[in-house]
Write a structure and sequence with these properties.
single chain, about 180 residues, alpha+beta, Beta-Lactamase, two-stranded parallel ribbon, 9 strands
């Protein structure tokens, strides 16, 4: 039986991430970006991200209206409960509160043309699972943000711990404000 959970979302600077893997993921983007505006998706090789195998989601940015399609979902992300979402658009995922949280984060990256890092705390009863994620914007042709690469890691808990949480209507506590350090 699932238990009700609460969720808190904090936007954090990259150097505040607990996950070394996610700091490296962000640094790959910074190195590719260099002095330019956005790096090209074609510049990212699987070898560069091998340390995150199974933890990366590739998201296509759709326009008019703005939406997002899950092109590829890593196996560890699927283990966390996102099984069956590959190929879907964000407006097709459930629960609605989760959909709204994901859409807001993706919109922020597209509109800001910069990476966004979050620490997400899931709490139920006495158990807490912390998920960190980094969402990176890329271009295909040198203009708009057309692809997002998202990576997640679990400083506390594991992807399997999230499967047993029912957070279908608990995201009202989520915010994307910078955490004060």
């Amino acid at each position: 039986m699932k238990t009700r959970a609460t969720i808190g979302v904090d936007k954090v600077p990259p150097d505040a991430l607990e996950s070394e893997k996610l700091r490296r993921f962000h640094q790959v983007w910074m190195d590719l970006k260099g002095e330019g505006d956005l790096p090209f998706r074609a510049e990212v090789s699987p070898e560069q991200l091998g340390f995150l195998l199974g933890q990366v989601t590739i998201v296509d940015v759709l326009r008019e209206p703005l939406n997002f399609r899950f092109k590829l979902i890593g196996t560890k992300i699927e283990e966390a409960g996102r099984h069956g979402d590959q190929g879907k658009t964000v407006d097709q995922i459930e629960p609605v509160a989760y959909r709204q949280m994901v859409a807001a984060a993706y919109r922020e990256v597209v509109e800001g043309r910069e990476p966004v890092c979050h620490r997400i705390n899931y709490q139920h009863h006495q158990r807490q699972v912390t998920l960190e994620r980094v969402i990176l914007p890329f271009t295909l042709a040198g203009g708009d943000v057309e692809v997002l690469l998202e990576a997640s890691d679990w400083p506390t808990g594991s992807p399997q711990d999230l499967r047993n949480l029912d957070y279908s209507d608990t995201i009202e506590s989520a915010s994307t404000t910078y955490r004060s350090n």
